[in-house]
Amino acid sequence: MRWPKSRRADAATDIDSVDETPAGTVQTATVKETNETEAIAALGESDRDDQPMPSRRRIRWSRMIAYGVLPGLALLLALAAGFLKWQDNSVRDANVFREQSVRAATDSTIALLSYRPDTVQKDLEAAQGRLTGTFLDSYKSLIHDVVIPGAKEKQISAEATVPAAASTSATENHAVVLLFVDQTVIVGKDAPTNTASSVRVTLDKVEGRWLISQFDPV
Q1: CB within 8 A of 116, min separation 6: which ones?
Q2: What angle (nearest 5°) sits at the alpha carbon of residue 126, between those of residues 125 and 129?
């Protein structure tokens, strides 16, 4: 069956209109997608361009910390450790000087003030080795002129003890010690007499020994 000529023309026109519309729509969609793709790509490139900057900043800060802050911190720690070690050694040395000077002052004071009639010269002359300076000269004069002759003549004996002692100051070569001294004296056959006193003893280190240079009652 054949259609009339007018019907064939209309059908062709409908077919052409149907074919053209989808093509135009597809082309428009393709253009939009392309534009969106380019825009997204451009944003991606922009983001990628911006991202390395913080990374570079982090690298600079890392280098600053590694080459500047950390060495300075290490130096401070080393200095602090050295100071603490020096301080600890100083405290230990001071404690040693105090202990040595207190012991020397105690032992020497007991030796100076203790004697018996039959051994008085030997006892007190031996004590001279614990003294130095002008005090040594004064002590020599005292024991030879007064103490030794009196002890022999009157049968005097003396015994000293140090119940308490405290360091006032102490360095490597000089120290001051406060002593509390008890002395018991017996004259002949008389009853013992007890005397309590306090003495400030000054010591100097001479050839590695703590020697008394002053002996002052307080």
Answers
A1: 123, 151, 157
A2: 100
Measured distance CA(184)–CA(161) in Å, rounded: 9
Q: What pLDDT, in 10s, does the model give residues 21-68? A: 444 444 444 444 555 545 444 544 544 445 555 445 555 656 655 556
Are 202 and 212 contacting, i.e. CB atoms less than 8 angstroms apart?
yes
117, 151 in Cβ contact below 8 A? yes
13 belongs to a structural domain? yes
Cα pseudo-dihedral 138, 140, 146, 148, rounded to 10: 160
Strands annotated E in the chain: 156-170, 174-187, 193-206, 209-217
Beta sheet of 209-217, edge-to-edge order: 156-170, 174-187, 193-206, 209-217
Give the number of domains in the chain: 2
Which residue, 31, 50, 69, sits at the end of a domain? 50
| Rounded Cα distance, 60 and 54, in Å | 10
Q: Which amino acid is at 131?
A: L
pLDDT digits (tens, 9 = 90+) for 74-105: 666 666 666 666 555 666 778 899 999 999 99
